[in-house]
């Protein structure tokens, strides 16, 4: 009974706490990441081969890599193509190109994540979220990790160059440099690191868009004056890829700002310059601003012809949920469970919006409708223009 009364007293105090009080250390826990789980499995394994395989896999941050690949593949799938069940001569996306894109992007992401861990074992050891990473636990040496990163970077870039196109390969290589060479050291210098990290997440949709453009459009005519940047501008000329990149860029602020608020004291102790402890009020405002920005970005996807009009309705529902939680996060300064609620809202928001965009892809179901109703396809003199 005493325990129950104590819990009720604590809950009452939290409810009566003024909103203008300084942010306090939160005890909200976040689930262990895949790297920590794989490191635990590697540590417990009795097989040397299995232990090494799990340790190397944990270097890649599998969940983060999966998100990167998902954003690139979704952008690839959303590139404008003729409706389903139309003429077999119509341009379509290449499955082989998608496989190369997925394989190369996975390896480039693995390389970037590994180099990030190589640079930070001393600081990772000071934080609950990262203390179980493989280099902290001595499951692998720094030299082994560097060799692994170089092999992944080389194989990934080559796969993208020959399997997709040089533009996508260049974006993949640039993202490795941006994440490992700029974002990682900047984390200990300035809160601007959050914006740089958001740029890293925005590049994969551009990779997917440029890869799809290669599959569905004729090659750029080559002349003696044609340069590599001519092809890059050609492949990235349509606004759809940039809008998807903007969506990923904006989404990362409510996601990371909520996550960092739960362990702000650990970031401060480890010397990481994060808004969550340096500028907590700004941390909340930024999360709210970029959550609101998802609305015009989704409108832009319809305006650019990437999605149909129904996407305006369905995406608005999901975006409104994110904005509501971001507003609560800002108003309560991340306290009273607001950080946890916004974090989980952001976790479900991104796959929700991307999935809805795929369902509402412009013209996707027009061919199915004509087939069901027995209508003949209208022919145009100039063929398909997308």
What's this model, at a glance?
With 386 residues, the protein is mostly helical. It contains 17 helices and no strands.
Task: Walk me through what this model shows.
The protein has 386 residues and is mostly helical. The protein folds into two domains: 32-80 and 88-216, UbiA prenyltransferase (Tetracycline Repressor, domain 2); 239-374, Four Helix Bundle (Hemerythrin (Met), subunit A) (Up-down Bundle). It has 17 helices and no strands. α5 runs antiparallel to α7. The longest helix is centred in the first third of the chain and has 25 residues, at 95-119. It is globular, with a radius of gyration of 23 Å. One of its GO terms (cellular component) is mitochondrial membrane. InterPro entries: Protohaem_IX_farnesylTrfase, Protohaem_IX_farnesylTrfase_mt, UbiA_prenyltransferase, UbiA_prenylTrfase_CS, UbiA_sf. Residues 18-32 have a biased composition (Low complexity).
Keywords:
70% helix; mainly alpha; 17 helices; 2 domains; Tetracycline Repressor, domain 2; Four Helix Bundle (Hemerythrin (Met), subunit A); disordered C terminus; 386 residues; globular
Structural class label: mainly alpha
Number of strand elements = 0
What does the main sheet amount to?
Answer: none
- Into how many domains do the coordinates divide? 2
Main location: mitochondrion
Protein name: Protoheme IX farnesyltransferase, mitochondrial
Function: Converts protoheme IX and farnesyl diphosphate to heme O.
Transmembrane segments: 53-78, 98-119, 140-162, 168-186, 193-212, 286-305
Task: Give a topology summary.
Layout: H1 2-16, H2 34-44, H3 48-59, H4 62-78, H5 95-119, H6 121-124, H7 142-163, H8 166-186, H9 193-216, H10 228-235, H11 239-262, H12 264-270, H13 275-278, H14 280-303, H15 310-331, H16 338-359, H17 366-373
């Amino acid at each position: 009974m005493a325990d129950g009364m104590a819990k009720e007293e604590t809950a009452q105090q939290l409810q009566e706490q003024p909103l203008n009080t300084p942010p306090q250390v939160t005890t909200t826990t976040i689930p262990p990441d895949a790297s920590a789980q794989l490191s635990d499995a590697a540590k417990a394994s009795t097989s040397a081969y299995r232990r090494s395989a799990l340790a190397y896999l944990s270097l890649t941050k599998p969940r983060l890599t999966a998100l990167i690949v998902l954003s690139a593949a979704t952008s690839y799938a959303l590139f404008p193509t003729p409706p389903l069940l139309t003429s077999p001569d119509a341009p379509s996306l290449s499955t082989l190109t998608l496989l190369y894109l997925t394989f190369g992007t996975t390896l480039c992401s693995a390389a970037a994540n590994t180099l990030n861990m190589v640079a930070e074992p001393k600081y990772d050891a000071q934080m609950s979220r990262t203390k179980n990473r493989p280099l902290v636990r001595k499951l692998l040496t720094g030299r082994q990790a560097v060799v692994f990163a170089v092999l992944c970077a080389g194989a990934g870039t080559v796969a993208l160059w020959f399997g997709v196109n040089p533009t996508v390969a260049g974006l993949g290589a640039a993202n490795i440099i941006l994440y490992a060479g700029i974002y990682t050291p900047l984390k200990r210098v300035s809160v601007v690191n959050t914006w740089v990290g958001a740029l890293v997440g925005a590049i994969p949709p551009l990779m997917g868009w440029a890869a799809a453009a290669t599959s569905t459009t004729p090659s750029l005519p080559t002349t003696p004056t044609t340069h590599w940047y001519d092809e890059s501008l050609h492949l990235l000329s349509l606004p759809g890829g940039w809008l998807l990149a903007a969506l990923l860029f904006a989404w990362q602020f409510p996601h990371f700002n909520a996550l960092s608020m739960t362990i702000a004291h650990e970031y401060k102790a480890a010397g990481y310059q994060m808004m969550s402890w340096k500028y907590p009020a700004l941390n909340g405002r930024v999360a709210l601003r970029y959550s609101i920005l998802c609305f015009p970005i989704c409108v832009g996807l319809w305006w650019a012809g990437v999605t149909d009009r129904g996407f305006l309705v369905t995406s608005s529902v999901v975006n409104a949920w994110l904005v509501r939680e971001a507003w609560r996060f800002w108003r309560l300064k991340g306290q009273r469970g607001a950080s946890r609620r916004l974090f989980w809202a952001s976790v479900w928001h991104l796959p929700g919006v991307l999935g809805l965009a795929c369902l509402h892809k412009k013209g996707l179901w027009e061919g199915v409708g004509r087939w069901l109703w027995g209508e003949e396809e209208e022919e145009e003199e100039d063929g398909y223009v997308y």
